[in-house]
Amino acid sequence: MKKDIHPENYRPVVFKDMSNGDVFLSKSTCNSRETIEFEGETYPLVKLEISNTSHPFYTGKATLVDTAGRVDKFRNRYGNRNK
Length: 83
What we know:
A four-stranded mixed sheet has the order 2-1-4-3, with no helix packed on it. Helices cover about 20% and strands about 30% of the residues. The termini are far apart. By secondary structure, the protein is an alpha+beta fold. The chain has one domain.
């Protein structure tokens, strides 16, 4: 790795998903006043509202929008203007 390209506070940080309690370790420059014990070490803690373990797109709980139904609804309301 090249020297002096990362900020000085680039360090391991634990991120915690507050919606489901999942935690993971990554490197970051995020500031944090809280710490957490993770795998026998103490790390800074950054709390997240949502992560890949709770986001509907990644968990498969996403709902698909019926775009064809919307087009039909629009045409029924306003008619076919291409006459």
